[in-house]
Each structure stands twice: as structure tokens, then as C-alpha cells.
Amino acid sequence: MISLDNVTISYGGWTLFDNISFLINPKDRIGLVGKNGAGKTTLLRVITGEQQPTEGGVSINGECSIGYLPQQMRVADTTSLVAETAKAFDEVLRIEADIERLTAEIATRDDYESEAYAELIHRLNEANDRYHILGGDTREADIERTLLGLGFKRTDFERPTREFSGGWRMRIELAKLLLKRPSIFLLDEPTNHLDIESIQWLEEYLKNYNGAVLLISHDRAFLDNVTTRTIELSLGKVYDYKVPYSKFVELRAERRAQQMAAYENQQRLIEKTEEFIEKFRYKPTKSNQVQSRVKQLEKLERIEVDEEDLSRLNIKFPPAPRSGQIVADIKGVGKAFGEKRIFSGAEFTIERGQKIALVGRNGEGKTTFARMLIGELEQSEGEIKLGANVNIGYYAQNQDDLMDGEFTVFDTLDRVAVGDVRTRLRDILGAFLFRGEDIDKRVKVLSGGERSRLAMARLMLEPYNLLVLDEPTNHMDMRSKDILKSALQKYDGTVVVVSHDREFLDGLVDRIYEFRDGGVREYLGDIWYFLEKRKIESLSEIERRDKSIAAPKSSDTNGAGKQSYEQKKEQEKLLRKLRKAVETIEEELAKVEQEIAAYDARFATATEYNADDYAKYDALKQHYDHLMHEWEKAVYELEISSE
């Protein structure tokens, strides 16, 4: 379908791509990966024809259409949401006009046997076929389904596009692109402006799409769920793996290990050969053998090992000063801007050491709540009460607005640092990969990833005990995200994070607060527990809605009764299973409590220290904490299932 043939791109004396070739087939699902600066976006622009290669070329099948979503683009703001989205069907509308014109012309003719009449009929049939292929019959339903899937509400459909933020405007362009149904999607970081539900919807859409997909993303879960092939760009070369991203990581490590083994073996051979040549170079009796070895070295195809980018963040948050047990007490909090109510009734407590996530659709109030928590916004109702000695560090989503583009990297930190930390600014910047001349760059020339790193570096200037992070992983590559996640897991303070990155949240948070439909709901579990519960609830809502639409008439009492009985039977079965789970955990808790009590009694009368006993005691207490967490989840599930 699309073939890249020996493509080379050079800038002066520097080569970005060096004779790369690969083929994109119909229905391929390809993840394009590589470190920042490897040329991923450039490659997409080469395929679309926006940029011409220095050498080589791109061959595209004549019937292949391309849908390209760049990271940044201008969006029209002169129409309503639904009218702008309908522009995706410009070709359909042209065909519709052609069909009307051809139909009217045929109706006025009576030369049924003529070639001209036959030609009109043929053109009308072709136009009708093309109209159906492009979805002309279902375009209004497709527009509605796509906009709702990407997180818009029906009440948004007639809103002017100028009222939407940049992130929502990108969704409008994505909706138009999806509705055009091209032969191949080229998507550059499509999840950056989407929430979790919209990402899941897009995953399902792309998995079931009839064309090909080539995408760039730093969202590992998204790549794994959508792609079946991974193309890596590294040091001007491409490496093609017929596997999703996670499997690619394993295979890449194996490939590099094999390369290193072959390289080391060859180096030993070269070293021994050169020693032989040097030793016997001037001995006539060995001249034939020496010449043979020289030719052997000249003909030897040297093995090259892929250079590895070993630069990495070195993040370790300063120890958190001790705060009170209650970090923040939120009671009946809500926020409205004029007549528009964002959310209300938020009521929960954040305790010391907790790591929680705020999730939900864009516009439901996650960032608004984060800004109220740090005191940047006033709540419209309720009370947010911070605990004793709480010192907050805030990472804002809109870093561009908060950093002066004219300042250098060093100045950005130097202007906010106080005390002894000013002597360590270069070390802190070095930990975030700003080294040498990098610290003199102006902020306005930094990439999105570099700005994210600089903003994170500012959090290191002071020891905070509450970190409020709003989309900290946007623009970060996967390795940087992993390192940040590891640092937060080891951080001994409290963390509140707004994020749509499921892989980042997995193993980091154990409590979720969902902002949805004007309220806030608590989930006592990790991100996958939340997603599972939300999926179950969504399916239940669909079932209830479908049953209410297709409810039997009053005369059909037997069918309704049978349906109700089956539902009741399934519900009772689920409740029995949940009660059993609670009872099993409670029995185990009782046993562990007895064992802990026995150790307590022994330690009270002990006359000497026994390291093994204390190790077993600590392990028991950790097991007890784990069981308590599992018990809370099980009880919560039982409660909501009993409602």
C-alpha cells in the first residue's frame, strides 16, 4: 500500500535517516517508537508528502488515502461543533449533489437505448456506490457516535468551536479524521488530549478499523492494545518487529545481547589476528600466513552494535517533612463558574502517605479541584481544610503559561531557588538531562518533553510533603515516565495526581476519585480495579436502558417474570460470592491478628534481641495491611452490589 524505499534525510553534515526502507500493508497496526529526536514525526511528514527526503522516495498505491493527525494544528472557529465535524463529509456532499443532478437529468430523457443514456445510468450507479462506501447513508449517526465517543456531550453539538479549549479542538480534528475513513491513519500522539474513557473508545475504534494505522504514542497501554507491529527508529536506522510494544521491548533486549556477544567474539578474533600479524610480520617463513591474515581482516565485515541512549533522568524527591495525619479534609466542596456548575458534593479525606488519582472526562473538574486544593482557586461551596504543616508542591498542566520563554533553563530555577539549594542547581538540572550548554537555552526553544522535565526540576528545589501533579507525563517519553513513577513510588510524602495514563497510574495509586456528571465518587482500589468497575457499571446502564426501551407490554407478564427471575438469580449468586470473599478475608485477618498478638506478648518478656523474630513480625504486619486493603475493597464491592 505504502512503500518507503531507501529514504535518507540529511541536514548539512548530519543524517537523520540513512537509507531506511519498509512497507505498510493494508490493515497493519504499527507503533512507531524511538527516543525524542529520533525522527518519528519527520517520518510521518515524509509519508504525507509535507517533507521531501534527501534521497530515496515514498511510493503510494493510487487508491490509498491518508488521514494525518499532527501533534499541533490550527482549527477553524467560525462554525458550530457539529457543522465543523460534518466537513469530514465534503466528498459525500459533492457526490450527493451529483446524484441529484444525474437523477434529474435522467428523468427528463426518453432516449433509453442511446449510449449517452447508458453512460448517465453508469455514472449514477458509480456515484451511489461511492456514496454508500463513504457512509453517506449514516453520516449523521456516525457524527453523533464519534463525537460522543470522544467525550463531547449532545449539549455541545451546537456550541461554536471557538468556545472549546485547544485540547477539545484537537478532538474535533480527530473526529473529522475518523469520519473520513482513510486507507491509513497517521496519528502523532493522539492520546495527549484525551481522557481515559475516550482513549478506551479510540482503542476499540482503531482495533476494529478496516484500514491501516501507523501511530506515535508514549502511552504503553495504548500501543499494546492497538498495535501488532512495532517499528523502531534508532540512530538513523529502522528495526521492524511483528509484535506489540511490550513484546518488542523484550525482543530488542535479546537482539542487543546477541549483537554484543557477536561483537565481542569478533573483537577477540581481530585482536588475535592482529597480534599474529604483528608478531610474524618480518619472518619470511610466515609471510604467506601473514598475508593471508591481512586479507582476512580486509574482507571481514565488521559487526556494529547499535548505540544505546544511556542518558536517563535521575530523580529522587527530597524526604518529605512530616505533616499531620490528615493532609486535607474535603467537605461538601463544589465549584461553579457563573451559571455553569462544574461539580458539587465532593467529600473525602486525604491522609498522610496516600497516593491518589483524580480521573474523569475533560471538563469535569479535575484540574479545577487541584487548583482549589493548592489555594489557587476558591471553592463555590463547602470547605477544604489543610492539615498541620502541609507544604504543597504543584506541577501544572499548562507549563507554557507558567514559565517565561525569555528566561534560560538555569534562570528559571535560579529565580525561584532560595538558600543552600542554589549551590546545587547545576546538579539538579543535570539529573534532568540539562547538561553543558543546555542550561543556557531559552525556555521558548525547548521541546514539550524538555519543558516537562524543567517544570519537574523546579519541584526539587524545596522539600514538599504534598505533591499535586496535573498530567505530569504529557510529552514525556516512556523511559522518563518509568523513572518518574519509580521516584513517586519511593517518595514518602502524599501524592495527588491527575492523569489519563493507565500504565503510569498502575502500581502508583491505590485510591481513585472519579469526577463525573457533576459529582465525585471514590473507588478503593487501583486503576485497573476502577476501569473494571466502570466497565461493569457502564454495561449495566446500557442493559437497563435497552430493557426500558424494549420492555414487554403488560399482557406479556410471563416473559417479564422470567426475565426478572433470571436477573434476581444472577444477583443472588454474585452476592453469595462477594459475602464468601469477605468472610474468607476476615478469617485470615483473625489468624494474623492472633499471631501478631503472640509476638507482642513474646517481645514484652524477651531478654535478648532476635533478628529472625522481628523479620517475621514485620512480614506479618505487612501481610495484615495487605489483607485490610483487600477487605476494604471486598466490603465496598459487596455494598455497591447490594444497593
Describe, in plain words, how this protein is organized in 3D.
The protein is of the alpha/beta class and 643 residues long. The chain is built from 20 helices and 18 strands. It has a 6-stranded mixed sheet with strand order 5-6-7-3-8-9, sandwiched between helices. It has a 6-stranded mixed sheet with strand order 14-15-16-12-17-18. A 3-stranded antiparallel sheet has the order 2-1-4, with no helix packed on it. The longest helix has 49 residues, at 557-605. It is globular and about 110 Å long. 28% of the residues are buried. Mean pLDDT is 82; it is low at 539-565.
In a few lines, what is going on in this structure?
The chain has helices spanning 40-48, 81-85, 90-107, 115-133, 139-149, 166-180, 196-207, 220-226, 245-280, 287-299, 366-373, 399-402, 409-414, 425-431, 448-458, 478-490, 502-505, 527-549, 557-605, 611-642, and strands at residues 2-11, 14-24, 29-33, 55-60, 66-69, 184-188, 212-216, 229-234, 237-241, 326-337, 340-351, 355-360, 381-386, 392-395, 466-470, 494-498, 511-516, 519-523. It has 643 residues and is α/β, with parallel strands linked by helices. The model is unreliable at 539-565 (pLDDT under 50).
